[in-house]
Design a protein that fits this description.
This protein is mainly α and about 110 residues long. The chain is built from 3 helices and no strands.
């Protein structure tokens, strides 16, 4: 083990971000279990888990920067990709489900006259 002491300016915000990230992820997962309809189930995990992962990655960026004594922004790229792709993926899945639902109700090729 190493005897590295982290400064309080990095530990306090990182600890708070880790707690907030865990709570957001837990709430997103519980929301997934509690919702009944598919469209309702898409919102809590996409928002809660995205915010939770973002908080954990920002906390990791703070700790890494404190240990390296310089700004470390590798996690910033991961955060940007997760925060942008997760809601977009959820929207695309919902649109695909909507198109599938519409296709079941009104099959293509069926006209009003026939």
């Amino acid at each position: 083990m190493t005897d590295t002491v982290l400064p309080a300016w990095a530990l306090l915000p990182a600890s708070l971000l880790l707690i907030l990230g865990g709570i957001c992820t837990l709430l997103g997962s519980v929301g997934l279990l509690r919702m009944k309809r598919f469209y309702d189930r898409m919102h809590p995990p996409s928002m809660g888990n995205t915010l939770g992962a973002g908080c954990v990655l920002i906390a990791s960026m703070l700790i890494s920067s404190a240990l390296a004594h310089r700004p470390v922004i590798h996690e910033l790229l991961i955060t940007v990709f997760i925060v942008t792709t997760s809601p977009i993926t959820a929207m695309l899945v919902m649109r695909a489900a909507l198109h599938r639902q519409i296709a079941r109700r009104d099959p293509p090729g069926k006209t009003d006259s026939g």
